């Protein structure tokens, strides 16, 4: 269960990073 939670957390961070990159691109 711990491994699954860690994987989900990493996925969320990746999604947030991609979303932030998209926002920065739009702002620029």
Describe the structure.
- This protein has 28 residues and is mostly helical.
- The chain is 93% helix and 0% strand.
- The relative contact order is 0.12.
Mind sketching the topology for me?
Blueprint: H1 2-27
Structural class label: mainly alpha
Mean pLDDT: 76
The total count of strands amounts to 0
Described by strand count, sense and barrel closure, the largest sheet is: none
Q: Counting H and I runs of at least 4 residues, what is the number of helices? A: 1
The dominant shape is rod-shaped
Quick tags:
single chain; 28 residues; mainly alpha; 1 helix
Short description, anyone?
With 28 residues, the chain is an all-alpha fold.
